[in-house]
TrEMBL record:
Protein name (database record): TonB-dependent receptor
Primary location: membrane
Annotated compartments: Cell outer membrane
Protein species of origin: Paludibaculum fermentans
InterPro entries associated with the record: Beta-barrel_TonB_sf (IPR036942), CarboxyPept-like_regulatory (IPR008969), Oar-like_b-barrel (IPR057601), TonB-dep_rcpt-like (IPR039426)
One MF annotation (Gene Ontology) recorded for this entry: siderophore uptake transmembrane transporter activity
Keywords, comma-separated and alphabetical: Cell outer membrane, Membrane, Receptor, Transmembrane, Transmembrane beta strand, Transport
Amino acid sequence: MSDASGTPVPAARVTALDATRGFRRTAETNWEGRFSLDAVPPGEWTLHVEHDGFTPLGTATFPLSIGQVLIQRLTLSLKGVATTVEVNEQPDALEAAATTASLALGGDRIEEAPALGRNYLGFVALVPGLTQTATGGQQRSMTGIRSPLADSGFSFSGVRARSNSMTIDGLDNRDETTGGNRVAVGLEMVQEFRVAGVSAGAEFGGAAGGLINVITRTGVNQWHGDATWFFQNELLNARKTEVDSERRPRFRRRQPGVSVMGPLRRDRTFWAVAAEMEEESAQEWSETPSWAVDRINRVLAQDRTVSSGLYPTSQHGLDSTFKLNHQVTERDALAFRYAWSHGRALGDVQGAENFLDRSAAGNSLTADHSLAATWLRVITPAMVNEIRTQYGRREQRLWPNGSGPLVEIPGIVSFGESPRLNASRLETHTELVEQWNLTAGRHRLSAGASVHAVHFDGRIANRFGGVELFPTLEAFEQRSPAMSWIVRGDPRTRMTTVPVGLWLQERWQVLDHLLLEAGLRYDKQSLPSGLPQPPGNWSPRLGLAWRPGVKTPWILRAGFGLFTDRYPLAYLNDVLQKGSGQATEYVRYGLGPEVAARWAASASFPAARARKLSIGWERGFGSSSTFHVELNLVRALHLPRVRNAALTLPPVYLLEQTARSSYRGLSFSYNRRVLEGITLLASFDLGRAWDDASDFDEHPSQPANLHADWGRSRLYQARRLSISSIFELPFGPWVGPPWLQAALENWTLAPGMVAGSGRPVNTLLTYDPAATGAYPVTARPTGMLRNTGLGPASVSLDARLMRTIPFHDNRMRLQFGAESFNLLNHANAVRLSEAYATPAGRLSNWGSLIESGPPRQVQLFMQFEY
């Protein structure tokens, strides 16, 4: 705060007001004319400034997004004729107080753009430096899962997709067993979310990957809500490339929803509730080759059969969220949220990385609950305390379509009970987080602690039904397996793990154009008894933001940090189950005798860690647009994997924290807020991701030589382009006949595209010549490196066309239209066949398509807003 001559104005009274909710925060400028308001909730805010001898000053309404630090420079004028000075300029689009780049998405960008399954996580694909995993390509629903080990669906800077931090209202929402997302929040309840691949803030921990932080909506003084209806039918859709049928597969989907938000007491108490249902009736393709059906069924001799063709599947989901906000006093605010989701997928949960007969697929039932509360206390304008707590509960059951051992003939088909599709589990979460923020002059100090207790009670019967691996169809006809596995005993396990975090962070505005950020975080996770207890980890964080001058339109950023991850419970479960004596795994090589395998955890069991360096340059264009270039160098160490420490049979399966990954990437992005009816977000990435194991169940091909597997990661994607745009028609000054302007008025066009270069394809043998006991098999032909092949490029163009009819002075709106996903009907590969060679020679269908993403789909919709 300064006067017209640039002299700082101390003791000015500053009031920030969110008129939609009546929220008010006050502060006073110090001797440098500086003021600070901490922990201000996202929303639409104005500032009002008063000082004796000066004309009161007010600003126009400006948006404040989640995690944003906004710098506003204001000039007071000496008292004159005017009673109030209005500042109508919007804040600079350049975030001068951010040491690392992140992207906030909300408002029209998620409400008016096409979203497959109305899943807000689909918009995460627009973020620079990201690649999607197979889970991201398979998932069609927020509530139901189509993979027994479903991860988050996204990899940031080559770090595994199980390692991301996903939070709702600042509280953890990660599935501790698989690393996926827990409770589903409908699109109508999402106010906005911020995504970052690297963050210098020490308060962010417990994950080595990226950060996805969602803020849910609150009610305001004006009642508002909506009713929505989305509908699909196969008559408007294309068919998948891999579906070899003359009939168009059935695909019917409907998704109604409703939301109501408003005040219980104006300026004090607000509530918001939203619910959404989804129902899907479809057909999927049983992938047994037609030429192999009779040959396989002759061997099975009517005990069970395989088939080729369409079979029925279905999906049902429901999510509901209720939120209550109460402003107790100007200093104290309370928030309560309850979210519940339930999803069921029948017939189409994917069970193996091979062509699947319908018997090898399965079913899932998932139910989630989350009860959360927050207390924000403004002790003084310079000191804020926030306490957040949550109780969460996830119940999940998986069951197979078929029975009997899984028979796997790589490159041909898998049929029978998939080993991971016989499971049930209950996972409960109890979490407490407290954070203090203190501002003193140019310094802002943050300190906090978190405790998160997770209890697991489950029955994961992985390979309890048996697995038989045949190198060729002829070997199956001769009943001559290359390898077989079966587990006998009690599959039930119970475990409790408690991650604890402590952090201290300082932001120091050294000069008006130089910001330094330094923090230290401590993470310690206690593991269940029977496992080695890992040491605690200290993680330093450093950040810098330099802008040569107050009005310079560009800024240079740099951030560095160490990030400690948690252990996936699905990874730990094998040792607790098979290493404790309650169950034993038996392995057979060829037609030889069964030998008992041992399971154990390595004596050295450090937590996975990522070392991240980010350097970026950003150019601002007024209050509307920015262009950003960022270099990311990320190295992850101590990643979980399984290795046969005995090198051969009988195996000693050892859980080890020895895998590693490396990523180098350069991203370019352009972000334009709504201006003259146009909103645009575009990014282009160049990246190189390498590792020696892309997931915890990927065994090394040579257990005695881990370096032999260093190569392209499954998460490798050399180039990636994403574009999202919204056009409010007609935009800009109109030049043309009035009748055409009237015809185009109140139409919205929202096209978007994600395209990328091909993903790696491994070259695997259909058998295990070294008898390492690895499953899934990881053996490769001699001299061939891991993941040397590349699949086809991917392109997905989505678009929405919507007409808005306003009435009652625009207080109510009827909207209708159509949206299309994968408009070009490009066959985007989700899974490709990696079976490269049998004992008899190379397979001709190596690299062929097993599963593609959704084909072209057209969805009709109608919604009423008030």
